[in-house]
Write a structure and sequence with these properties.
Elements (H helix, E strand, L loop, with lengths): L1 E2 L1 H20 L2 H22 L5 E7 L2 E3 L4 E8 L9 E7 L2 E7 L7 E8 L5 E13 L5 E7 L3 E6 L31 E7 L11 H7 L3 E6 L6 E5 L8 H20 L4 E5 L4 E4 L2 H14 L23 E6 L14 E6 L13 E4 L3 H13 L1
Parallel strand pairs: 3-10, 13-14, 13-16, 16-17, 17-18
Antiparallel strand pairs: 1-9, 2-4, 4-7, 5-6, 5-8, 8-9, 8-10, 11-12, 14-15
Helix pairs in contact: 1-2, 4-5, 4-6
C-alpha cells in the first residue's frame, strides 16, 4: 500500500493544521487537522486489506495471422468467504497495457472479461503478468500487486493468395503436367525420420537405426512431384525492417501453399537456417513457428551460393526472397525454374540469365505479379 500524492498532501496538511492549532491555541485548527487525519486513516484501512482474487487468462486462438483477431478472456473469481472489493486489472500485452475494471464480487462469485489483443506485428506477444490496483474513493491511497501466469500469442506472417507453378519433371508415363498430389507406387527417397506406429517395416533403414539408436524409416515421395526451395535473405543490408516483414510474408505464403499441396519444400535463410518442411497441418504449423521468430541477422556475411542449400539437381523451383539478386549465382543447372522476389522497388520486370525477377514494394503486389506469370 502506498499513499497517492493527494494522500500525502492531506497527511501533511493534517499535521500542519494540528501543530498550528497547538501553537496558536486555536481548537478549530486542531479539529480540522484531526478531520484530515481521520479521512486519511479511513481511506487507508480498506486498501490495506490484501486482495486474493483467483485469476485465469486464455487467449483464443493462440496463433493468428498478422492483422487477425485474437481475444483474451480473463476470469476473475472470489474464493473467499467475504465480499471482494472492486479493483482495476492491468494486463501487459507486449509494449501496451490494457486496463480492465473488475467489479466487486460476492463470496464464491466470478466474472468474465474479454478484450482484443493487438496483432499488427509479427512475432511472439507475451501477455502478463497481470497487475491489480485498488484505491479508495477519495484517491488518497493505492495498493498494487501482481498475479496470474504469463501467456503467449504467436502472430504469424499474413498469408497471401499464391499459385505454385508445376516445376517438376515427370518421370511417370502420363500426359500433362506433373501431378500436385502423390501417385501410388512412388519410390523416390525424400528423407529419413523416426519410426512411428503404422509405418511400413520394409522401409526401415538399418544403418541409420544402428547409428542413432532409434528406429529410422525411409520417407518416399512421388518422383514427379515438384519440390521447392525458398531462400529468405535475412541480412539487414538487403532490406529495411519494414520491407523485411513483406519478404517474410512472401516466403510464408509460398511455403504454406506448398505444404498444403504436400509438395516437398525447404526453408533456407542466409543466416544458416535449413529446414525441411513437412506436409499437412503439422508441417504448416512448424514452419510458421519458425517464420514467427525469424529476424534480420548479419552474423554470416556470405555469398548466396546455391550449392549450400543441400538440394538435388535439375528439378524444382527456387524462390529467392529479399533485395537485389545480384549475388545469386546462376541457378539454371540446379533448378528447373528460379524466381527472385525483389522487395526494394515497385516496377515488375524480367531478370537475366534465366532468372525471373519480380520487383514489388509489398508481399501482396509481388505475389499477384507472380500469380499472373504462372497463369500465363
Amino acid at each position: 500500500m502506498r499513499p497517492t500524492p493527494r494522500g500525502i498532501a492531506v497527511l501533511v496538511c493534517a499535521v500542519v493544521l494540528y501543530v498550528a492549532g497547538l501553537l496558536l491555541g486555536l481548537p478549530v485548527l486542531r479539529a480540522l487537522g484531526g478531520c484530515a487525519l481521520g479521512a486519511f486513516v479511513v481511506a487507508v484501512l480498506p486498501v490495506v486489506t490484501r486482495l486474493k482474487p483467483a485469476v485465469t487468462r486464455h487467449v483464443n486462438p493462440d496463433r493468428v495471422q498478422r492483422g487477425g483477431t485474437a481475444i483474451a478472456e480473463l476470469v476473475v473469481g472470489n474464493a473467499g468467504s467475504f465480499r471482494q472489493a472492486a479493483f482495476v486489472a492491468r494486463d501487459t500485452i507486449g509494449d501496451e497495457v490494457t486496463e480492465i475494471p473488475v467489479r466487486a464480487l460476492p463470496a464464491g462469485g466470478s466474472a468474465r472479461y474479454r478484450y482484443e489483443v493487438p496483432t499488427d506485428r509479427r512475432g511472439r506477444i507475451p501477455l502478463g503478468p497481470l497487475s491489480i490496483e485498488r484505491s479508495d474513493l477519495l484517491g488518497l491511497a493505492r495498493a498494487r500487486g501482481e498475479l496470474g501466469e504469463v501467456s503467449e500469442l504467436r502472430v504469424y506472417p499474413k498469408r497471401h493468395p499464391v499459385r505454385l507453378s508445376p516445376a517438376g519433371r515427370a518421370r511417370h508415363h502420363h500426359e500433362g503436367e506433373p501431378p500436385l498430389q502423390p501417385m501410388p507406387g512412388s519410390m523416390d527417397l525424400r528423407s529419413l525420420r523416426e519410426y512411428v506406429v503404422g509405418d511400413e517395416r520394409r522401409h526401415l533403414h538399418w544403418k541409420a537405426t544402428a547409428r542413432t539408436g532409434q528406429l529410422m524409416v525411409r520417407e518416399y515421395v512421388d518422383p514427379a512431384q515438384p519440390w521447392m526451395v525458398v531462400l529468405l535473405d535475412t541480412r539487414s543490408a538487403a532490406l529495411s525492417a519494414e520491407r523485411f516483414e513483406e519478404a517474410v510474408e512472401v516466403a510464408s505464403s509460398l511455403l504454406w501453399e506448398a505444404s498444403e499441396q504436400e509438395r516437398p519444400s525447404r526453408l533456407c535463410t542466409t543466416s544458416g537456417l535449413r529446414h525441411l518442411v513437412a506436409g499437412g497441418a503439422a508441417g504448416i504449423r512448424e514452419v510458421l513457428d519458425l517464420l514467427c521468430d525469424v529476424r534480420q541477422d548479419d552474423r554470416l556475411e556470405i555469398t548466396l551460393d546455391l550449392a549450400r542449400l543441400g538440394v538435388g539437381r535439375g528439378d524444382g523451383l527456387l524462390a529467392y526472397v529479399g533485395g537485389s539478386a545480384a549475388e545469386l549465382r546462376a541457378p539454371g543447372r540446379r533448378f528447373a525454374q528460379a524466381v527472385a522476389f525483389d522487395l526494394t522497388v515497385t516496377t515488375p520486370s524480367r531478370g537475366v540469365d534465366g532468372l525471373l525477377t519480380v520487383r514489388a514494394s509489398s508481399a501482396a503486389e509481388a505475389l499477384a505479379t507472380w500469380n499472373a506469370v504462372v497463369a500465363r
